[in-house]
Amino acid sequence: MPQKSIFDLDENIVAALSYLLGPFTGIAVLILEKENKFVRFHALQSTLWFLMLMVIGWVIGFVASLFTGIPFVGWAFGIAFGGIFSIGTVIYILSKIFLMLRAYNGATCKIPIIGDVVWAQINKGM
User: Fold this and answer.
1) Numbers of helices and strands, H then E, in the chain
2) Does the global pTM surpass 0.85?
3) How many domains is the chain partitioned into structurally?
């Protein structure tokens, strides 16, 4: 039986919802949930993972804007960076669905490197 968390919801529901809007719901849940380590783990992991993906997307967009302005070959860079950005979008969406399902099923699914950092922070007593 899952424990209760904020808003008197089951912890697995709140943990899954922390992934819904990426870092925004992750931060909101982190601020509101003070006790439940399972929920805080997923909220912090959501925040770090989706912030990292957003920053990578911004960097790719910035670099693409620089290279696509090159005369005669800019279109090739545009196609290449468009493909990279599309792959990143698929990773963003699929990881969100996967992590939400794992959290809803009560699993502590750690993303490599980020999950270990989050686990250490949560168990240290943020």
Assistant:
1) 5, 0
2) yes
3) 1
